[in-house]
Design brief:
heterodimer, A: alpha/beta, Alkaline Phosphatase, subunit A, 2 domains, nine-stranded mixed beta sheet, two-stranded antiparallel ribbon, 13 helices, 32% helix, 16% strand, B: alpha+beta, two-stranded antiparallel sheet, 29 helices
Chain lengths: 494, 928
């Protein structure tokens, strides 16, 4: 903690003690904040979560799910069994089978099959549980993302990060408990509802931190106002509010005083934790991070995908930030990386050209994150989740081009089977869970539903997925939905 | 579900006597199953302690017991499976004798004697809200409130001081604070009734109360979902609601107009039916199952909206299974769907006098534009005439050529500056100046669809701009062909990339225009070869090239262009003013009961019928579309419907006291919270009906009551006789201990109303009040909304409009509501994002609110405007300025201590610093 921050905090404390007089000290005020840490319902394996969502949905067939059988059928008409009674977002007519476009090899002690696109991640694969049989019932981006993150494909339900902070509170009273970081140049299709608090109180909503400019909107003092003036004004407001409290006796007034103080502290603590330039060189290297770098793809262009470069450090910077945030007590850090929707119908969205670029952006960053957490002894109680909102078809998408053309090789949305992985936080390493059929079309062994994943994440955090609920509009709402179909994935638990 | 194989099925033993249910079967159920499938819990909807329920089965595998066939009974499957995830009971497998007993019992016919069940199925219709209104001996709000307080040993607080009441009732009815003049007038007259009448006739009233309604119906100006494109014609419904409140439209009529206003001369009112998020045609998969699912979702939204808004029931739960708690079956739900099965989401022509006038105006504007266009064409150099023509412009290009007879015109793009080409409008003019491409049949090489934004139909729909354009699906190429019913003499083609001037990419930098006459032979009439080479950096070129023109011709051309631009804008605006997003009506779909809500598993067909627990109205499937909705509306808006009046008076009560008598305003079902004052609720509902469903009558009753007038203070008045003394710096002793624990302990939330429960203002009221107090508020009512974001709709990345513009100083209800995109500053104050119905707003307190209200540009600008106003009105004297500031913002003068304290701040940091502090004070932000 910087001297400035210490100073700010001590002022605040003194101020609170002083102004609130006898007995009604900082402790009572803390209890008025949402932040206070709560005891888990059941024994917890993970204290915090870093969730890495690849928005658009990466192809499992080019990364984790090795299907040599597809080579034999490459560019032949897809077997009828693929197509009967199926829905696709964009495929029309009879599509052709598309072989995996990259080489696979077995990696690590566990001998997991991985493609050449993830050489760094391959080195830490023994710390990861790969789930090859995740399936969802949504096949459009926004509803599928909402389903993964809020448990409902419709708007209005709290995100998993909000649930976690609601259930467990935050451990740092100077930082929001749930932070969201974006990369890839666009907000995911599901929009801000993906980190909204839904029917939970809005203190639990994810705070989107920007990586350039003000990390939180309106965080810095306006031009021409220094810290002293800020303090003076804050004191003036507090004085008015106390007077108001004296008149009305409404305890809400005290909460507001406390929140103004928290905002004041956040002005110091957020920029500090968001500043990765203080990280030593070897750590930056581990992630491939570059402090202060603003990618051209992040400048609000209409189509950022055409500007993607493999060495773009934006995602790596976010991974490093994620570590700093959880280290400082943030409960749930959610990363969204946009640009994984590789249909192959326009430039910048192909399996053969764009996917390798995206993989390069995340490969070192994620393996660096895992190693860094491990070195700091944080991996054991930090759960990392990686995945998209669905998978991609074993067939080539053919609505635009029926022929195989460089830079335009694509796959459509595939909800029936895809890969996600988890690591740390009480999850076993080196596990390959579930098996898909020879084309990677359906799970044939140990299918895993989104509900199962959600139940498992809650379980690791010490929140009983079946009992953990919030009563709203007369119903006991749960992340895992009204039925209890979701099962904790016991096979993955260490 | 999977039934791998029933390997373990035990064969029936022929020897034993028939299994006795009570003696042999029930004990097994009791011991192993009732914990989850009994009286307390019915997991997966399965209940095994009551015959009728058990034989009906659960949600997923019903019937779980197939009498006579254990092999097909899922009950047996679950107790015998080897799948660890499925096995029942989950704690451990039943003993094999038990399995055998159950198997045999089912195979023998699952004989379950009547009258042996120990549990009784409760009658779900036996619920207070479904019963007729009860009569009571009490006849005023205060009497009911006092009766309950007395019961608890409590009593009402003394009245708040008159100015506090004035501030409270003014915020409450109009969402704005009273002016110092209004305070002065009331302090003199003390006429409460006159104040209430003044507020109820103020147009500000409807603007404030419409917001409560729009929260419930989740009104927004975008379509929501993935693409979230603009819904440009939604606002007439918002205006309808404001007018209805201002006119005190009887509530029964208000209901009917929203459901079937097309039959009542209130087209815009039916915007209610289609307030939900919806997938547009281009966003739905091309296959039939996707279309069926999307259609089901969109009808579901209508039924859900009707159920929760008017009836306070969550009917939607019954889409997948019979309602768990309320007497609403899946059949009830689908029967409700049948009433609205002919409603489609879409724009409808308005038939109001304004819309008719707009249509007339449109004709005039079009004629004027045609004329200007014709005159302008004189100054356009002719293509292929040897003259170097100007560089291509992303906005608009004219290709003029010698008149030619054409049956078809083809515009082929050979290259772009970037990506796939995009054209916002292609116009083909005859020698008489008519654009004959408008809405003519077209063919395109291909298209990259982005629903409601890039679609081929937009290339000749008469609408300009990127959001109404065609995009090719190939990089650098593509073509559009227009065909006319007969040969026409044409001499001009006008086209652009984005005539609103925002986009310059995807521009056709090389193209050729060809025509074909009746013979079918194609000839090139213009191409880009004689234009100046395209150079993005060259900004020297004017929008209209004046190259080769004489000085006087330039002046004339410029004059015409200056005339044309506002007309173009006018055209766009008037076109929008004639339509409302209020649904279109067609022959109703056949509605079937759907197994688990899956449109691919239709069961029997259903007819329109109201909820069976509440009524018997049933129609046939031959009933015409509008008639269906009329009947539904009549049934809801009936004094005999036990829910309608109760639900609305509760919403009104909640609007005044922050919490309803029923705490769950959109759930009056059995899972909702029971009313704190059931008799009062019924009395109010009866009053409501008796008054002719007058909402304003209810306001009068409430705000004129003593209950409403009482103080909001938490402590006993005797503790605070010293008034504002505690303002002094020497810390406030009253912060320490509450001296009146009794009321606070018994009823800390003041649900019983022993004091007035103060509450934070809503987001809109805070913004509106900041503008009002600083003298900036623009009271322009109605019409298309203003933007709080840089975009009106679209994929993502909305940037807030930070600074004050002439438009955005209007009340916030007129802000363009972007679904699920909370406004940058005030969204944090629990402003709903229209993702779903918000029947009650939370009032959370977060640090983000503090940052927004302290640092946002909006606060800085309004604070500085406030300061300017003070200087103007109060002169240079700091004390006078401070006094004036307090009077405007807080409706009171500062105390001596406050004057003393704030003086130095103002001197050191300026008056606007004080204004900002005032905007952040609780006293400003809270309803007193």
């Amino acid at each position: 903690m910087t001297p400035d921050l210490l100073h700010a905090r001590s002022i605040t404390r003194r101020y609170l003690f002083q102004t609130t007089g006898l007995g009604f000290g900082a402790m009572a005020l803390n209890s008025l904040l949402a932040g206070e840490a709560k005891k888990p319902m059941i024994p917890a394996k993970a204290k915090r979560v870093i969730y890495l969502h690849m928005a658009g949905s990466p192809s499992q067939l080019e990364m984790f799910d090795y299907k040599p059988e597809l080579q034999k059928l490459h560019l032949k008409d897809a077997p009828a069994s693929f197509l009967e009674g199926k829905r696709f977002a964009f495929i029309k007519g009879v599509p052709k089978v598309l072989a995996g476009q990259f080489k696979f090899a077995q990696q690590g002690q566990s001998g997991q099959w991985m493609s050449e696109l993830l050489p760094q991640l391959a080195k830490v694969i023994d710390k990861i549980s790969v789930i090859r049989t995740v399936h969802t019932d949504q096949f459009n981006h926004a509803p599928a993302q909402l389903f993964v993150h809020t448990g409902s494909p419709r708007l209005g339900s709290p995100s998993i990060g909000s649930w976690a902070t609601y259930g467990l509170g935050s451990v740092n009273e100077d930082l929001p408990g749930f932070v969201v970081l974006l990369s890839g140049g666009k907000t995911p299709d599901g929009g801000k509802s993906l980190w909204g608090s839904g029917f939970l109180p809005s203190v639990y909503q994810g705070a989107q931190c920007r990586t350039s400019g003000d990390p939180v909107l309106y965080l810095s003092d306006p031009k021409g106002m220094d810290r002293t003036m800020r303090r003076r004004m804050l004191d003036a407001v507090a004085k008015m509010n106390e007077a108001e409290h004296a008149r009305s006796g409404d305890s809400e007034t005290l909460t507001r005083i406390a929140q103004y103080e928290l905002a004041y502290r956040m002005q110091m603590s957020v920029p500090e934790v968001m500043d990765i330039s203080k990280e030593p060189e070897h750590v930056l290297k581990l992630y491939g991070a570059k402090p202060g770098y603003v990618s051209p793809a992040e400048k609000g262009v209409e189509d950022p995908r055409v500007l993607y470069k493999g060495d773009d450090p934006t995602f790596a910077n976010n991974c490093l930030l994620a570590r700093r945030l959880i280290e400082n007590g943030v409960r749930f850090v959610q990363l969204y990386d946009w640009g994984w929707d590789h249909h192959g119908s326009s430039p910048g969205e192909s399996i053969d050209e764009t996917l390798p670029i995206k993989c390069q952006q995340i490969d070192r960053a994620i393996s660096g994150l895992i190693l860094d957490l491990e070195q700091r002894g944080l991996l054991d109680d930090t759960l990392i989740v990686w995945g998209g909102e669905f998978g991609r078809t074993p067939m080539m998408q053919n609505n635009v081009r029926t022929e195989f053309k460089k830079g335009f090789v694509g796959r459509d949305h595939h909800p029936y089977a895809y890969t996600m992985w988890m690591a740390g936080g009480g999850i076993k390493g080196g596990v390959a869970h579930g098996q898909t059929d020879e084309f990677g079309y359906y799970p044939v062994e140990k299918p895993v539903s989104i509900r199962d994943l959600q139940a498992t994440i809650l379980n690791q955090l010490g929140l009983d997925p079946y009992r953990f609920h919030f009563t709203y509009q007369g119903l006991d709402n749960r992340l895992i939905g009204p039925t209890s179909e979701g099962k904790v994935l016991k096979a993955l638990l260490a | 579900m999977r039934f791998p194989s029933l390997l373990l099925l035990v064969t029936t033993s022929a020897s034993a006597a028939p299994v006795d249910f009570v003696r042999e079967v029930r004990p097994i159920f009791e011991k192993h199953c009732y914990e989850c499938h009994g009286e307390k819990k019915q997991k997966s909807g399965l209940r095994l302690d009551i015959k009728s329920e058990a034989l009906k089965g659960g949600d997923k595998h019903a019937p779980d017991i197939q009498a006579g066939d254990a092999a097909k009974s899922s009950l047996i499957h679950f107790i015998t499976t080897t799948d660890e995830d499925e096995i029942m009971p989950p704690k451990g497998k039943l003993a094999s004798e038990d399995i055998e007993t159950l198997t045999r019992w089912i195979n023998e016919g699952a004989h379950w004697p009547d009258g042996v069940d120990l549990a009784k199925l409760e009658d779900r219709r036996d619920h207070w809200a479904f019963k007729p209104l009860a009569k009571s001996s009490l006849h005023s709000i205060d009497a009911f409130i006092d009766a309950k307080l007395t019961e608890k040993g409590l009593h009402r607080s003394p009245p708040a001081d008159p100015v506090t009441w004035l501030r409270r009732v003014t915020f409450d009815l109009t969402g704005l604070p009273p002016t110092p003049e209004e305070v002065a007038a009331f302090s003199k007259s003390k006429d409460h009734a006159a104040v209430v009448e003044r507020l109820l006739v103020s147009p500000r009233y409807g603007e404030h109360w419409a917001q409560h309604w729009l929260d419930v119906v989740r009104y927004a100006d975008t379509h929501g979902f993935e693409v979230n494109t603009e819904r440009p014609n939604a606002w007439p419904y918002r205006d309808y609601v404001i007018r209805a409140f201002n006119n005190d439209t009887p509530y029964d009529r208000f209901i009917k107009e929203q459901i079937v206003g097309d039959a009542m001369g209130e087209d815009a009112a039916t915007g209610f039916l289609v307030t939900a998020s919806v997938l547009l045609p281009g966003q739905i998969g091309k296959d039939e199952p996707s279309k069926r699912l999307a259609r089901q979702d969109s009808i579901d939204e209508i039924v859900v909206n009707i159920g929760q808004t008017f009836l306070g029931l969550s009917i939607g739960c019954a889409r997948c299974h019979d309602h768990k708690f309320d007497p609403i079956s899946a059949k009830d739900y689908y029967s409700m769907q049948a009433f609205v099965a002919g409603v489609e989401y879409g724009d409808r022509e308005l038939r109001t006098p304004e819309a008719l006038a707009a249509r007339e105006e449109l004709k005039k504007v079009k004629a004027q534009l045609t004329d200007i266009e014709k005159q302008l064409s004189r100054f356009v150099p002719i293509a292929k005439s040897g003259v170097k023509r100007p560089m291509i412009d992303a906005r608009e290009n004219r290709d003029r050529f010698m008149p030619v007879k054409a049956r078809r015109v083809r515009f082929t793009i050979r290259d772009t500056n970037k990506l796939e080409p995009c054209i916002d409008e292609l116009e083909v003019f005859t020698t008489t100046g008519e654009n004959i491409a408008l809405n003519a049949p077209i063919t395109v090489s291909g298209e990259k669809v982005s629903a409601d934004r890039h679609e081929q139909r937009f290339v000749n729909d008469g609408n300009y701009g990127n959001s109404r354009s065609w995009m090719s699906n190939e990089v650098g190429k593509g073509w559009v062909m227009v065909e006319f019913p007969q040969e026409q003499e044409i001499d001009r083609v006008v086209w652009g990339r984005d005539r609103q001037g925002k986009f310059k990419d995807r521009l056709a930098t090389s193209y050729v225009i060809e025509t074909a006459d009746d013979s079918g032979a194609w000839r090139v009439v213009a191409d880009s070869d004689d234009r100046q080479r395209y150079d993005e950096r060259d900004r020297t070129q004017p929008a209209f090239s004046t190259q080769g023109l004489r000085q006087d011709e330039i002046a004339e051309a410029q004059r015409l262009i200056d005339q044309k631009r506002p007309l173009d804008e006018q055209l766009q605006r008037i076109s929008a003013e004639q339509k409302v997003f209020a649904g279109t009506f067609r022959t109703p779909d056949d509605i079937h009961l759907l197994n688990r809500g899956d449109p691919e598993q239709p069961k029997e067909s259903v007819v329109p019928a109201v909820l069976s627990a509440l009524g018997t109205v049933t129609l046939t499937n031959e009933t015409a579309e509008q008639e269906r909705r009329r009947v539904l509306a009549d049934w809801i808006a009936s004094p005999r419907n036990p829910l309608t009046a109760r639900v609305m008076v509760n919403r009104i009560w909640q609007g005044h006291f922050g919490t309803g008598l029923v705490e769950t305003p959109s759930d009056f079902g059995r899972m909702g919270v029971k009313p704190t004052h059931p008799e009062l609720l019924d009395w109010l509902a009866a009053e409501f009906i008796k008054s002719g469903w007058s909402v304003k009558h209810m306001h009068r009753l409430i705000v004129m009551s003593e209950t409403y007038r009482q103080s909001s203070k938490t402590m006993r008045p005797s503790d605070n006789q010293t008034g504002r003394q505690s303002d002094s710096l020497s810390l406030s002793p009253s912060l320490i201990v509450y001296k009146s624990p009794s009321a606070n302990t018994i009823d800390s939330d003041a649900r019983l109303l022993w004091r007035f429960p103060s509450r934070r203002l809503e987001a809109e009221s805070i913004r509106d009040s900041m503008l009002a107090v600083s003298g900036l508020l623009d009271l322009k009512m109605y019409g298309r909304g203003y933007n709080l974001f840089d975009k009106r709709g679209g994929l993502s990345g909305f940037e807030p409009v930070d600074s004050l513009t002439p438009d955005n100083k209007r009340r916030m209800i007129y802000a363009h509501k972007v679904r699920r995109e909370p406004e940058a500053v005030f969204g944090a104050f629990d402003c709903p994002d229209a993702g779903q119905s918000t029947a009650i707003r939370r009032a959370s307190t977060t640090p983000i609110q503090a940052l927004n209200l302290f640092n946002s540009r909006f606060t800085l600008d309004t604070a500085s405007a406030f300061a300017t106003r003070l200087q103007k009105e109060a002169g240079d004297d700091i004390a006078a300025q401070i006094t004036s500031a307090y009077k405007l913002a807080l409706n009171r003068s500062p105390t001596t201590a406050e004057l003393h304290d704030t003086g130095p701040t103002v001197r050191e940091y300026g008056l606007s610093a004080l204004c900002r502090a005032l905007f952040n004070s609780n006293e400003f932000l809270f309803m007193p």
